[in-house]
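Notebook entry, cofactor series.
This is the third protein in the set we're modelling with a bound small molecule. For this one the ligand is 7,8-diamino-nonanoic acid. I'm keeping the input format identical across the series so the outputs can be compared line by line later. Sequence and SMILES below, as received.
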Amino acid sequence: MRVVIVTGTSTDVGKTIVTAALASRAARAGSVVVVKPVQTGIGDGSAGDVDVVTSLTGCPVEEWVRLDEPLAPDTAARRQGVVIPVVAEHAARVVALARSGDHDTLLVEGAGGLLVRLDADGGTLLDLARLVTDGLPDGAVEVVVVTSAGLGTLNHTELTVDTLRARGLEPAGLVIGSWPVDPGLAETCNLHDLPRVTGLPLLGVVPAGAGSLSRAAFAAQADRCMTTRMSGDSRA
Ligand SMILES: Nc1ncnc2c1ncn2[C@@H]1O[C@H](COP(=O)(O)OP(=O)(O)OP(=O)(O)O)[C@@H](O)[C@H]1O
Ligand SMILES: C[C@H](N)[C@H](N)CCCCCC(=O)O
Ligand SMILES: [Mg+2]
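Returned structure with ligand:
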């Protein structure tokens, strides 16, 4: 059993597509479940991240809280007048699901960047990652940081990685969530600079447009774009 926590430098960096790519690969080697503890922005009928993952991978998904407005969860909950679970409750559910042994890999996708407030007490995905790591055996939890390709990403990525390290969480690596068809100078340099400035491996680079592929084509793309194998990946 392993848990992969997918965070990112911000919203819209491609966490969901990367989560789907990791799920697609892990599903070759065993049973996978994807959890989105808190989803916001589905009030207008928009597809939630779990719908995207289901469509791209067919893996089972769980969404625990859904809020209407496309905002940080604590803001959306406050404006909607609802009380949502605190992060410690999500962490306990993740640990229980991991310990149940029902799945070989459990992927957890945050909402927005690492420090976005997921509850009214200021709990964040950083807190969730710390609690889940503390609740499971050594080495069972990996944190992946999804980042953007272009100018500005070096700063955002270092801030995110340093914040994880300050809580004793060493990320497994970085994934670029959307690689442009026509990369410019900054994108090209960042392929070298992101690993250099963070000291972390670049685990993968997902091409822009991957989210529109059929399930079969996405699975093939997931294999090609995740350049470094993770512990739960299929050897096939
Ligand atoms: N590789 C990709 N291929 C196609 N579309 C992509 C890719 N990466 C991101 N996108 C698109 O960019 C947008 C943001 O991506 P995504 O939903 O994965 O962001 P996120 O980091 O998961 O954000 P959130 O904080 O809302 O969970 C979406 O509209 C998605 O379809
Ligand atoms: C609505 C969006 N797609 C995400 N679900 C929530 C992103 C919150 C970001 C808050 C912020 O960092 O300013
Ligand atoms: Mg997402």
